[in-house]
Amino acid sequence: MNIEKNQAARMAVEKIQNNSVVGLGSGSTAAIFIRLLAEKVKKEHMNIVCVATSIKSGELGSSLGLKVVDIDDVSSIDVTVDGADEVDYDLNGIKGGGAALLFEKIVASKSKYNIWIIDSSKFHKKLGNFKLPVEVIKFGSQRIFDCLQEMGLNPTYRLNDDSTRLLTDSSNYIIDIDIQHVSDLKSLSNALENLTGVVEHGLFINICNELLIGGLKKDIKRSELDDRLVLN
Ligand SMILES: O=C(CO)[C@H](O)[C@H](O)COP(=O)(O)O
Which reaction does this chain catalyze (predicted)? Predict the structure, then answer.
């Protein structure tokens, strides 16, 4: 799958124009993009300012010579390139496999254009193969866990290798839920947002503008989305 991730990242880097503000995604595919972007910026003497979606991506970008600034130091972001854990035929997706969903959603919402880069194994007709991450504050998190259990979503706390609870860049917990049997994603999104203590969830609805799929070498734009384009 690394070859496919590479292909998708290469397709994305070709789309980056000089004098733009670029959002750097998180995860292994985004990391390939960050490396390729740094090479391109050096080679073509480009003027690019970057905003990162995680501490790790920001550190990677800076270490490669990219100019990485705080999100509040830019008025908007021209394009963000990020990975995803699963994407459906309507270009809705699940993100947060790397626990960076909160910053990823904030950066995406400040971006004029969002490009996702994935390998072909992540492109499905319906979301639900991947568990949906829900970021919750520590205080009272068991109450949210119990609510998710009552909703039939089989919650599990995300753990580190030593079985302690994983903490996000904002020191919150992640609870992963099973949405295989959920058909109305918008209602689920609203229900999760209404639970006090939920900081964010990894359902990204109507956010991705363009999907680049390695392997299939597909470039799917939301603006051109129709059944014929996606299903063939
Ligand atoms: O959402 C993310 C991190 O929170 C990543 O974009 C997602 O997990 C994909 O990662 P990878 O490219 O390593 O498969």
Answer: aldehydo-D-ribose 5-phosphate = D-ribulose 5-phosphate
pLDDT for 82-97, tens place per residue?
A: 999 999 999 999 999 9
Q: Is the CB of 23 under 6 A from ligand 1?
A: no
The complex's ipTM?
0.98
Q: Which CATH class is domain 132-199?
A: alpha beta
Which stretches within 65-195 are classed as H helix? 101-109, 141-150, 185-193
Q: Which fold has domain 2-124+205-217?
A: Rossmann fold (3.40.50)
CA separation for the pair 68, 127 (Å, rounded): 33
CA-nearest of 84, 105, 106 to 94 is: 84
Question: In this structure, which residue's CA is closest to atom 2 in ligand 1?
Answer: 96
The answer to whether 229 and 158 have CB atoms below 8 angstroms apart is no
